[in-house]
Amino acid sequence: MAQNLEIFGSDFEVTDHIRDYVTKKVEKFDRHLGAINDIRVDLAHIKAARSAADRYVAQMTVRGKGFILRAEERADDIRTAMDKSVDKLSRQIVRFKEKRSWGRGEGKSAPEVVEEIDTTGEEAETTPPVIARRKKFDVIPMDELEAVEHMKLLGHDNFFLFYNVKSGLLNVLYRRRDGTYGLIEPT
Q1: Per-residue pLDDT band at 111 (split at 50, 70, 90)
Q2: Per residue in 128-161, pLDDT tens?
Q3: What pLDDT, on a 0 to 100 scale, did the predictor assign at position 126?
Q4: DSSP H helical ranges for the chain
Q5: What residues pair up with 182 in beta bridges, in sequence order?
Q6: Which residues have C-beta within 8 Å of that of residue 89, sequence separation ≥ 6?
Q7: Strand, helix or coil at 26?
Q8: What is the CATH number of the domain that holds 162?
Q9: What is the pTM of this model?
Protein backbone atom coordinates (compact mmCIF):
# COMPACT_ATOMS: atom_id res chain seq x y z
CA MET A 1 0.00 0.00 0.00
CA ALA A 2 1.62 3.22 -1.19
CA GLN A 3 -0.31 5.63 1.01
CA ASN A 4 0.02 6.38 4.71
CA LEU A 5 -2.91 4.92 6.69
CA GLU A 6 -3.75 6.34 10.10
CA ILE A 7 -6.48 4.82 12.29
CA PHE A 8 -7.71 6.63 15.40
CA GLY A 9 -10.31 5.67 17.98
CA SER A 10 -12.39 8.00 20.14
CA ASP A 11 -13.95 6.20 23.13
CA PHE A 12 -13.17 3.11 21.11
CA GLU A 13 -10.25 0.69 21.31
CA VAL A 14 -8.81 -0.08 17.89
CA THR A 15 -7.87 -3.75 18.12
CA ASP A 16 -5.57 -5.56 15.71
CA HIS A 17 -8.61 -7.30 14.21
CA ILE A 18 -10.33 -3.94 13.50
CA ARG A 19 -7.04 -2.50 12.17
CA ASP A 20 -6.72 -5.44 9.73
CA TYR A 21 -10.37 -5.06 8.67
CA VAL A 22 -9.92 -1.34 7.95
CA THR A 23 -6.64 -1.93 6.09
CA LYS A 24 -8.28 -4.55 3.90
CA LYS A 25 -11.18 -2.21 3.10
CA VAL A 26 -9.06 0.82 2.13
CA GLU A 27 -6.57 -1.10 -0.03
CA LYS A 28 -8.93 -0.94 -2.99
CA PHE A 29 -8.79 2.88 -3.03
CA ASP A 30 -5.20 2.66 -4.24
CA ARG A 31 -6.34 0.73 -7.33
CA HIS A 32 -9.09 3.20 -8.19
CA LEU A 33 -7.31 6.44 -7.36
CA GLY A 34 -3.54 6.18 -7.62
CA ALA A 35 -2.53 9.64 -6.39
CA ILE A 36 -3.41 9.11 -2.71
CA ASN A 37 -1.00 10.60 -0.17
CA ASP A 38 -2.68 9.50 3.05
CA ILE A 39 -5.88 8.09 4.48
CA ARG A 40 -7.17 8.93 7.95
CA VAL A 41 -9.84 6.77 9.56
CA ASP A 42 -11.54 7.98 12.74
CA LEU A 43 -13.64 5.41 14.58
CA ALA A 44 -15.81 6.45 17.49
CA HIS A 45 -18.27 5.01 19.94
CA ILE A 46 -20.86 7.57 21.06
CA LYS A 47 -22.45 6.39 24.27
CA ALA A 48 -24.98 9.22 24.43
CA ALA A 49 -26.38 8.70 20.92
CA ARG A 50 -30.16 9.05 20.80
CA SER A 51 -30.53 5.98 18.64
CA ALA A 52 -28.66 2.69 18.93
CA ALA A 53 -28.36 2.75 15.13
CA ASP A 54 -26.13 5.86 15.41
CA ARG A 55 -23.86 4.57 18.16
CA TYR A 56 -20.75 3.80 16.08
CA VAL A 57 -19.22 6.38 13.72
CA ALA A 58 -16.67 5.76 10.97
CA GLN A 59 -15.18 8.83 9.31
CA MET A 60 -12.68 8.52 6.47
CA THR A 61 -10.58 11.26 4.88
CA VAL A 62 -8.58 10.55 1.72
CA ARG A 63 -5.98 13.17 0.76
CA GLY A 64 -4.11 13.35 -2.50
CA LYS A 65 -2.55 15.87 -4.80
CA GLY A 66 -5.22 18.53 -5.35
CA PHE A 67 -8.14 16.79 -3.62
CA ILE A 68 -9.62 15.74 -0.30
CA LEU A 69 -12.51 13.27 -0.18
CA ARG A 70 -14.40 12.68 3.06
CA ALA A 71 -17.18 10.35 4.20
CA GLU A 72 -18.85 9.76 7.54
CA GLU A 73 -21.40 7.08 8.37
CA ARG A 74 -23.13 5.86 11.52
CA ALA A 75 -24.46 2.41 12.38
CA ASP A 76 -25.15 0.06 15.27
CA ASP A 77 -21.93 -1.89 14.56
CA ILE A 78 -18.45 -0.53 13.78
CA ARG A 79 -18.00 -2.85 10.78
CA THR A 80 -21.32 -1.75 9.29
CA ALA A 81 -20.40 1.91 9.77
CA MET A 82 -17.03 1.23 8.15
CA ASP A 83 -18.61 -0.59 5.19
CA LYS A 84 -21.10 2.26 4.62
CA SER A 85 -18.30 4.80 4.80
CA VAL A 86 -16.19 2.85 2.28
CA ASP A 87 -19.16 2.56 -0.09
CA LYS A 88 -19.87 6.29 0.14
CA LEU A 89 -16.22 7.14 -0.46
CA SER A 90 -16.09 4.74 -3.43
CA ARG A 91 -19.01 6.61 -5.03
CA GLN A 92 -17.23 9.92 -4.42
CA ILE A 93 -14.06 8.57 -6.08
CA VAL A 94 -16.05 7.51 -9.15
CA ARG A 95 -17.67 10.96 -9.37
CA PHE A 96 -14.32 12.66 -8.85
CA LYS A 97 -12.73 10.63 -11.64
CA GLU A 98 -15.68 11.36 -13.97
CA LYS A 99 -15.48 15.06 -13.22
CA ARG A 100 -11.73 15.10 -13.82
CA SER A 101 -12.02 13.20 -17.11
CA TRP A 102 -14.92 15.40 -18.24
CA GLY A 103 -12.75 18.48 -17.73
CA ARG A 104 -10.12 16.99 -20.05
CA GLY A 105 -12.61 16.77 -22.91
CA GLU A 106 -12.79 12.99 -23.24
CA GLY A 107 -16.30 13.15 -24.65
CA LYS A 108 -18.21 12.42 -21.47
CA SER A 109 -21.12 14.61 -20.48
CA ALA A 110 -21.11 16.59 -17.26
CA PRO A 111 -22.57 14.78 -14.26
CA GLU A 112 -26.07 15.93 -13.25
CA VAL A 113 -25.33 16.16 -9.52
CA VAL A 114 -21.95 17.33 -8.30
CA GLU A 115 -20.79 15.61 -5.09
CA GLU A 116 -19.14 17.86 -2.52
CA ILE A 117 -15.37 17.47 -2.73
CA ASP A 118 -13.35 19.19 -0.05
CA THR A 119 -10.19 20.86 -1.29
CA THR A 120 -7.14 22.17 0.47
CA GLY A 121 -6.89 25.87 1.35
CA GLU A 122 -4.78 26.68 -1.71
CA GLU A 123 -7.21 25.01 -4.10
CA ALA A 124 -10.25 26.65 -2.47
CA GLU A 125 -8.87 30.11 -3.26
CA THR A 126 -8.30 29.38 -6.95
CA THR A 127 -11.33 27.18 -7.70
CA PRO A 128 -14.76 28.79 -7.28
CA PRO A 129 -17.51 26.60 -5.79
CA VAL A 130 -19.79 24.85 -8.26
CA ILE A 131 -23.50 25.69 -8.13
CA ALA A 132 -25.12 22.79 -9.94
CA ARG A 133 -28.68 24.11 -9.93
CA ARG A 134 -30.61 27.30 -9.22
CA LYS A 135 -34.23 27.22 -8.21
CA LYS A 136 -36.74 30.04 -7.71
CA PHE A 137 -40.09 29.72 -5.97
CA ASP A 138 -42.77 31.86 -4.37
CA VAL A 139 -42.48 32.15 -0.60
CA ILE A 140 -45.94 31.68 0.91
CA PRO A 141 -46.66 33.04 4.40
CA MET A 142 -47.46 30.18 6.81
CA ASP A 143 -46.94 29.04 10.38
CA GLU A 144 -44.60 26.26 11.51
CA LEU A 145 -47.21 23.45 11.43
CA GLU A 146 -48.23 24.37 7.88
CA ALA A 147 -44.54 24.37 6.91
CA VAL A 148 -44.17 20.80 8.23
CA GLU A 149 -47.21 19.73 6.17
CA HIS A 150 -45.87 21.45 3.01
CA MET A 151 -42.48 19.83 3.55
CA LYS A 152 -44.12 16.39 3.69
CA LEU A 153 -46.39 17.07 0.69
CA LEU A 154 -43.52 18.30 -1.50
CA GLY A 155 -41.29 15.40 -0.51
CA HIS A 156 -38.50 17.64 0.77
CA ASP A 157 -36.77 15.32 3.21
CA ASN A 158 -33.94 17.59 4.33
CA PHE A 159 -35.17 21.19 4.61
CA PHE A 160 -37.91 23.66 3.70
CA LEU A 161 -37.68 27.47 3.46
CA PHE A 162 -40.81 29.45 4.40
CA TYR A 163 -42.01 32.90 5.50
CA ASN A 164 -43.09 32.63 9.14
CA VAL A 165 -46.31 34.59 9.72
CA LYS A 166 -45.73 34.84 13.47
CA SER A 167 -42.19 36.28 13.33
CA GLY A 168 -42.39 38.01 9.94
CA LEU A 169 -39.04 36.46 8.91
CA LEU A 170 -37.77 33.73 6.61
CA ASN A 171 -37.22 30.46 8.50
CA VAL A 172 -35.70 27.12 7.56
CA LEU A 173 -37.36 23.95 8.76
CA TYR A 174 -35.19 20.82 8.68
CA ARG A 175 -35.54 17.15 9.55
CA ARG A 176 -33.22 15.80 12.23
CA ARG A 177 -31.73 12.29 12.26
CA ASP A 178 -34.07 11.15 15.01
CA GLY A 179 -37.14 12.08 12.89
CA THR A 180 -38.00 15.31 14.70
CA TYR A 181 -37.78 18.76 13.14
CA GLY A 182 -35.55 21.74 13.79
CA LEU A 183 -36.17 25.39 12.97
CA ILE A 184 -33.57 27.98 12.02
CA GLU A 185 -34.64 31.56 12.76
CA PRO A 186 -32.56 34.63 11.87
CA THR A 187 -31.79 37.13 14.63
Answers
A1: very low
A2: 888 877 878 778 789 998 888 888 777 677 888 9
A3: 66
A4: 16-32, 78-103, 121-126, 144-154
A5: 174
A6: 29, 60, 62, 69, 70, 71
A7: helix
A8: 3.30.505.50
A9: 0.52
**% of the chain beyond a pLDDT of 70:** 80
Name the nearest CA neighbour of 34 among 4, 64, 73: 64
Number of domains in the chain: 2
Classify strands 36-45 and 4-10 as parallel, antiparallel or unpaired: parallel
Instruction: Establish if 136 belongs to a structural domain.
Output: no
Band (pLDDT 50/70/90 cuts) for residue 100 is low
When the pLDDT of each residue in the chain is averaged and rounded to a whole number, the result is: 79
**Do 87 and 163 share a structural domain?**
no
Amino acid letter, 39 = I
Helix, strand, coil percentages, rounded to 5, for the chain: 35, 30, 35
Rounded to whole angstroms, how far apart are CA atoms 94 and 176? 29
**CA 38, CA 22: separation in Å to the nearest integer?**
14
CA distance 111 to 98: 8
Residues 70 and 109 in one domain: yes
DSSP 12: S
